Amino acid sequence: MRAQFILSETWTNLRRNLAMLLSLMLVTFISFLFIGASVLTQAQITKAKGDWYDKVEVVVWLCPDGTSQSANCASGKSPSAKEITDLQKTIRDELNDVVAKIDYVSKQDFYDNTFTKQYPNGEYQGRTLTADDMQDSLWLKLKDPTKYQVVAEVLSGKEGVEDVTDQRQIFDPVFAVLNRATAVTAVLAGVMVLVAILLTGTTIRMSAASRRTETEIMRYVGASNWTIRLPFILEGAIASLLGSVLSCLMLSAIVRIFITGWLAQSVTWIPYVNQLTVLMISPFLVLGAVLISVIASTISLRRYLRA
Asked: Domain FtsX extracellular: where (predicted)?
């Protein structure tokens, strides 16, 4: 009987405060949509980093023929085959615990397999470059991509080495932008959650105030505090539950339409978040929304429904 009474009171509250509950549901929807977007963005960054950082290599650019600003290239000549072999041996001896693999890439190979793919016909900044304008290089696959600095310290001063670059430098600015986007989204989500908490408290207080006479009668006939409060708490929890479920469905639609359905088809070399990612974070979003609503409702009711 008590459970039936509580559910009946909850349904009555929902019907009486439909407009307020719709606004609460909408605020919860927007709030947790921002939170979900922030989590998905960070998940995307983590996924891309894990994939890209495993593939990136340290490139040791060898001295070109002609002038170079590097002190290691004072001779004006590119290293001979023997000098390149000696450099590879040095890398194996001094960086054996850091470097997993060494690949030598000649000027011609770099021009054919890399440069012309990025710049068709060899046209770069108004000039048409040839293989002779390229540099020989050594591409190092690291056992731990974070050990780039160790490699740079060992090789930067070696004769015949013009420069040592880490391919991660290409991706880090992109990740920095995405991290800032995540931070902005998280701040907006925090503001919206605060609005949801305040609106939840206000809605429940107004609902309790409109039924103050009924709750007083219930208290006189011996109803417990929780019997009186629970319908109001459930009222906010249901609205928050519906709002958070809608936000999860919207996140799923966004990922399906814009990520897996469009972006993943256009840019295929990046790993993307998918429906499984949305499915993994959805329970936390729903649980968080309901929990926030229950806490906000409980606190707001203490003032109006004191024993």
From this structure: 56-164
